[in-house]
Amino acid sequence: MKLKSIVLILTCLTILSFTKKDETKWISIKWVDNIENDFSFKERWSYHEGVYKNKFGQLSCDGICPPEIDQMKNEEGKIYPDSLKAFYAIVDTTHLFHSIKSEASTYEWAGTNFMTFKKQANNSMLGQSACNVSTHSSLNIEIKNDSFSAWIDYNSITDLGKQIFRMKEGQIRIDKQLFNKGIIKAEFDLKFVNTLDAEKEMYWKGLVYSNIEK
Questions:
Q1: Considering the chain, what is the average pLDDT of its residues?
Q2: In whole angstroms, what is the distance from residue 106 CA to residue 205 CA?
Q3: Residues 6 or more apart from 158 whose CB is under 8 A from it?
Q4: For the segment 75-131, what is each residue's pLDDT rounded down to a tens digit?
Q5: Helices (H) and strands (E) in the chain, counts
Q6: Bridge partners, 52 (sequence order)
Q7: CA-CA distance, 99 to 32, in Å (whole number)?
Q8: Cα separations (Å) of 26 from 126, 163, 170?
Q9: Which of 138, 119, 130 is closest to 96 using CA atoms?
Q10: In this structure, are residues 124 and 140 in contact, taking their beta carbons and an 8 Å threshold?
């Protein structure tokens, strides 16, 4: 009986493994010498989430912030002069340059300005757009050789929890010369399989300009 159970479990795992592989759709990349579009968004920047300029002209932090900074501000939110150096040693006020401009039809999405590409152990590159307080869907693009796959990672704040929506169809154009220099300059238009509501179309399209992190 034990042996039969083990065989059944192994069979199920094998089926799941093949199913997972079959779900991943790979499409050929369109390599180009240049992309004629407006990539001026890459010159814009934002602070880390929660960092803002208060009414006293100081860069402060509210919301997602280290708890130890609370004692460095008075009741009106002004940072004590003798705490400024310690405050900015804790709160990161780096200018973060935007790396994606896009529009999407997906769940719990209010926009995003950042997408990071990193080299993976299998020689592929994985790009992930950043979530924030209002955006809980992340675009994932994996590049391997001359093909790409894509999916939406949806981490809902509701009881739905985590969902993955895989690419149904789409295209991506990438600047080959910049790619060889470690930069992703791309234009994409992707559609996804909506496993929650087949009647609702899911898409994500836009532009990316991002360094490839090693």
A1: 89
A2: 11
A3: none
A4: 999 999 999 999 999 999 999 999 999 999 999 999 999 999 999 998 899 999 999
A5: 3, 14
A6: 60
A7: 19
A8: 14, 20, 10
A9: 130
A10: no
- Averaged pLDDT for residues 161-168: 95
pTM exceeds 0.85, yes or no: no
What token pair was written down for 194? 């909506």
pLDDT of residue 64: 81
| Eight-state DSSP code of residue 5 | H
First to last CA, the chain: 50
For every residue of 186-211, DSSP letters joined together read: EEEEEEE--SS-TTS-EEEEEEEEEE
Q: Please, what sign has the CA dihedral across residues 107, 194, 157, 162?
A: negative
- Per-residue pLDDT tens over the stretch 4-28: 333 333 333 433 333 344 468 999 9
The whole-angstrom separation of Cα 147 and Cα 128 is: 17
8 A C-beta contact, residue 176 and residue 32? yes
